[in-house]
Design brief:
The complex is a heterodimer of chains A (223) and B (200). Helix content of chain A is 85%, strand content 0%. Chain A is built from 10 helices and no strands. In chain A, helix 9 runs antiparallel to helix 10. Chain A starts with a helix and ends with a helix. Helix content of chain B is 34%, strand content 26%. Chain B contains 7 helices and 9 strands, in the order E-E-E-H-E-E-H-H-E-H-H-H-E-H-E-E. A 5-stranded parallel β-sheet of chain B has the order 6-7-8-3-9, with helices on both faces. Chain B is globular and about 45 Å long. Chain B starts with a strand and ends with a strand. Classes of the chains: A mainly alpha (223), B alpha/beta (200). Chains A and B meet through helix 1 and helix 5 of A and helix 4 of B.
Chain lengths: 223, 200
């Protein structure tokens, strides 16, 4: 009952994303543009750029993943599909996990893949691309999973988008600190293992517990 | 099978109904009547467990539905106000997803047959009219004969006469096979004669 439901929902959401490619492109372009604005603003001093690169890339990833969160449940809520999911055969937590996974595949994974290209702009050493990509690979799913709670809580509210940022951004802080920190550690010639392991631990804890919180929030906001 | 006792519903600070009790046996048809805004949709959502009643409870085969969750969901089909079809998918893809979500593995031929029976064109849903969207949603009825309880919110809205009478025929068949149906409608329908009425 669980695996077929996950497969169905992930497939459906990827198909929908494929049919609405502009939504995916918007979040990705937003990431690229925000990350490109900083060198223009702070000037082309290579040492400075190298120093701010991890932080800037991570903040841009954070904002970009925020941007697409509003759509996570809103469309399904509006056309009644969400009600059918609430009444589905699979537990709601499983449905939520599947939707979050699809959301990450569409909005998080492209960031991981394109981040080294952005890092190039900041003259980051080639040796650090791996750590950067790995930190994003572990961190961006946490952003989607935690963001889903906020998206469910603000579902159907007027001005929910702003409220969603206020709710979710503070919760993103630990991910930001660990993610950017791991790249800085590696840049300083130290092992980023500690930060990456902590990110991995956060991912596991979030993936296990957060979907049930999201499910409870969805039940409340779809009443 | 379905029992509602002393249901109470409050929306936006206004009490819509209070002390509403009824029971529905297998093979019975129940029409929920009442003017706009009287709480028909809310009652249906309470019956399927999407909405928690302000008071009272709903029981399915003697057990409160609050505790049954998915076990109850598997035995009911709820077609709500919104047709629950995605604009960017075709009716076939929509129906396929809808069936899989309730744990039903329908064959491609069965899906196509159901959509053809309702004469739904094979176009992305965004290109369909309101009535055709409604038909695309109603096609699920043909694949849900084994589901004991149908809860249909305004099933005849936006339908033409042929589609409406076909839907009535399906409801009739379901009742004859021992299923139960609860529906709301503003249009007079031939099956109204078979129905018990709850007036809100």
């Amino acid at each position: 009952m669980i695996f077929p439901a996950v497969k169905t929902i992930v497939r459906r959401d990827l198909l929908l994303a494929l049919r609405r490619r502009s939504d995916v492109a918007t979040a990705l372009l937003f990431f690229v543009i925000v990350a490109s604005l900083f060198p223009l603003g702070v000037g082309a001093e290579p040492n400075l750029l190298r120093a701010i690169a991890p932080g800037v890339i991570w903040v841009a990833a954070l904002l970009s993943s925020m941007l697409s969160l509003g759509r996570l449940f809103a469309a399904d809520h509006a056309d009644g599909t969400l009600e059918q999911m609430l009444l589905g055969a699979a537990p709601l937590g499983v449905v939520v996990s599947a939707k979050t996974l699809a959301h990450w595949l569409v909005s998080g994974l492209p960031l991981v893949l394109i981040a080294p290209l952005i890092a190039l702009q900041y003259d980051v050493e080639a040796g650090l691309y791996g750590v950067l990509a790995l930190s994003l690979l572990l961190g961006t799913p946490v952003l989607s999973i935690i963001g889903a709670i906020g998206a469910a809580l603000t579902l159907g509210l007027r001005g929910g988008g702003v409220l969603l940022s206020l709710l979710v951004l503070p919760l993103y802080v630990p991910v930001l600190i660990l993610g950017a920190g791991s790249v800085e550690m590696a840049a300083a010639g130290l092992s980023p293992e500690g930060q990456l392991l902590l990110l991995g631990a956060m991912l596991i804890v979030a993936a296990v517990f957060a979907p049930w919180a999201t499910a409870a929030a969805l039940r409340i906001s779809s009443e | 099978m379905l029992e509602a006792t002393e249901l109470e519903c409050e929306r936006g600070g206004r009490t819509l109904f209070r002390g509403l009790s009824f029971a529905l046996a297998a093979g019975e048809l129940l029409r929920v009547g009442g003017p706009n805004g009287s709480g028909k949709t809310s009652l249906l959502r309470i019956l399927c467990g999407l909405l928690t009643p302000g008071g009272g409870e709903v029981r399915w085969k003697g057990a409160p539905i609050r505790g049954l969750r998915e076990d109850y969901s598997r035995e009911l089909l709820y077609l709500g106000h919104a047709p629950a079809v995605k604009d960017d998918l075709t009716p076939l893809e929509n129906l396929d997803v809808a069936c899989r979500l309730v744990g039903m593995q329908a064959h491609q031929e069965a899906l196509t047959w159901a959509l053809n029976a309702f004469a739904v064109p094979d176009l992305p849903v965004r290109k369909l009219s309101q009535g055709q969207r409604r038909r695309a949603a109603l096609a699920r009825l043909l694949l849900s004969e084994s589901v004991a309880l149908w809860l249909l919110d305004e099933p005849f809205a936006a339908l033409d006469i042929a589609a409406a009478s076909y839907t009535e025929e399906l409801i009739g068949r379901h009742l004859a096979a021992g299923g139960s149906v609860v529906y709301t409608t503003h249009q007079p329908a031939a099956i109204d004669a078979l129905a018990r009425v709850v007036q809100l």
